[in-house]
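A common beginner's mistake is to predict each chain separately and then try to dock the pieces by hand. The better habit, illustrated here, is to supply every component at once so that their relative placement is modeled jointly.
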Amino acid sequence: MTPEPGIGPTPSQTVGPFFHDALLDGDRSELVSPDHPEAVRIEGTVYDGAGEPVSDAMVEIWQANGAGRYNDHADNREDLPLDEGFSGFGRSGTDAGGRFSFVTVMPGPVPLPDGGMQAPHIMVSVFARGLLKRVVTRIYFPDEEEANAADPVLSSIEDPKPRETLIARVEGDALRFDIHLQGENQTAFFEL
Amino acid sequence: MRQQPTNETAGLRPEDDGQPPYLYPDYVATRLRAPKKPLIILPRTLSDTTGPAYGRGPIGELDNDLIRQHAGEPLGERIIVTGRVLDGDGRPVRSSLIEIWQANAAGRYTHHLDRHPAPLDPNFSGAGRCHTDDEGRYRFVTVKPGAYPWKNHHNAWRPAHIHLSLFGSSFRSRLITQMYFPGDPLFEQDPIFQSVRDREAQKRMIATFDLETTEPEWALGYKFDIVLEGRDATPMEDRR
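With all components supplied together, the output reads:
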């Protein structure tokens, strides 16, 4: 069967409020065990434009391992190690308070097509009732000031306010990364 | 200087290529959840041309057969939903996870927050998953979901639909969508369906009844092909 020529992409539709049993069956929010020596806990809350927590969102992350390698065939940099059991993918629903969390490791830096480097970051997708299509953002790290300053994606955002929404902050033993879908403090979202 | 939304309809971009906008006020929940500041263009790098291996792990034999997950058979009209997952160039997306969920034949989800006073079916959970094969093909056996009311506006009803979640070959191709059934009289008043403004794009969310897929004396067949965004810069021939 030959696909029809010119057929366009299938439109996105909202995840709706009833996805939990299908998509969150089994906890995938811990990419490594909390006992892992390098474990990093990332917590956050998803807020709507009125500042209310979004209790029916799903946050997904995708990241490189500590060496900066993605666990995917499309990243064929064989000189960098892969970590057994580390997929780089995580999923967390939000609870009644809009809260999500992940336990993972700090990703290494990953390259640009021209050979330059990007600061360590985690790719993030957010789905929710009321979002007709996902929003995409990135988590950057507060202790990487030099790399962040040189990062081409961060540098492309002239206004410091949205730029700073992309950098997690230290809170106790964890990193905090809140996501504001709308409003004065809206998180910077990307178009792929 | 602080970035401000250019206007109230920052999410309504005509060049959206058949995708819905973020802000579609008729769908009331978008009003406080749609981002309104301009999106930032993300250059293509390994971070998004790669994608999760999640889902390439083992899947149970009955995971794509929603009518055999319990002791008895669910009530409702038995259906087979099958089709192909293709990338933007029409190439099959192989060994890729599809997750689905849906209401039962009476229009009720098993979800604890679904308060629609329609019966639950002890023989139907409404969740399934499978991998695409080497031609990008997938197949689910289920029952046709019922329409159900929701509180978006007075007398609001969702057309019958099945939710689908797909990964495709990279972070860029991630998609969550809904599959509708042909000829549903509820399309016209459903703001989620109508949020896709382009009529041709709307058709791409509607399955086709297919007599060839239909199994005599047993189940009606529907075909639903899914095209994921993006062309992969990296050849995917060896992808499994």
